[in-house]
Amino acid sequence: MHLCPVPGPLYAALLGYKESSISEVRRRFSRQVGRRFAEFFVSHRVCLDAVTAGGIDLVLPVPSSTRPGPASLARIEGLAELCVAGSAGSAGSAGSAGSASWDPGVLCRSDGPIGHMRPNPRAFAVPSACRPAVSGARVLLLDDTYVSGSRAQSAAATLRRAGARSVLIVPLGRVIRPATFAAHAWFSAEQPTGNGHAPRCLVAQTGAGRR
Q: What dihedral angle (degrees, nearest 10) is formed by the CA atoms of 44, 164, 208, 193?
């Protein structure tokens, strides 16, 4: 959704909503994260329909690689309803219009390692009871921060092995370090800032490449 320079306000929010020791700070940052997702679904609903050939069947967050329990995004109040309403397309695979569902329990951490920039389909698991929901589904996989991509890509590989028809990874913040890496600084400077929605939309560009 956004480039996320380090340091920067977006990076602070994406860390603070799950790691701050102050509950009010976590709530404040959680609201910011929720608003970012809301803005994304308002702006990119048509793009999601295009890239997924009609809509999303299943929405779920990428589980943490180290924290036990539900994914951090799953604990944001109202995010489940927002994602389901915002991502459901013209028809879901179950045959009813707008039949996307939110189910973080579909994906859980396994004991497989997650290496740097090396996806591992055994790093996560789909419980046997959840496999019918995954089989043939178009999945929208939400992440908060995308650094090397190994965690999100590992989760996507697990879902594909479980029979998902397609998996679209949507991270809120693509972490870059322009003050540390010249390539990151160049990439950030090269991003278009105007000329309408389509030239700036990676979802739309992906959809155009697949059609």
A: 40
